[in-house]
Structure formats: C-alpha cells, structure tokens
Specification:
about 60 residues, alpha+beta, flat
C-alpha cells in the first residue's frame, strides 16, 4: 500500500523544520512505513511551502 504524506511544519524564522521532518520519518519507519520519494512543493519564486513524502508498506 502506498500513500502521500504532506509535511508543513516550519521553523519560527521560516523554512521547513528539518529536525521535525526527521522525527516524522523515524516515526513512520517505526510504524512499518518506508519512504520511497521526497519532493518539495514550492511557491512562485521557489520558496518551499511543504515536503511531500511518498511512503509504502507491505500490506
């Protein structure tokens, strides 16, 4: 089974919170999910608004 997870948590001064993203990936792994692809969603001038994770498990 595959699904897409949208990660939007930002740091106080802007940008994606990488530590929180790493924690989310770790939690997904502990639940049996494997990240297959990571893609950024951007605004008009390239500002990253969110991270899209394609995850998969063996169900």
């Amino acid at each position: 089974m595959q699904k897409i997870v949208v990660f939007k948590k930002k740091r106080f001064f802007g940008g994606i919170d990488i530590d929180a993203l790493n924690q989310k990936v770790f939690e997904l792994g502990q639940a049996g999910w494997q990240v297959k692809t990571i893609t950024t969603a951007t605004r008009f001038f390239g500002q990253i608004t969110s991270i899209l994770l394609l995850i998969e498990n063996n169900e």
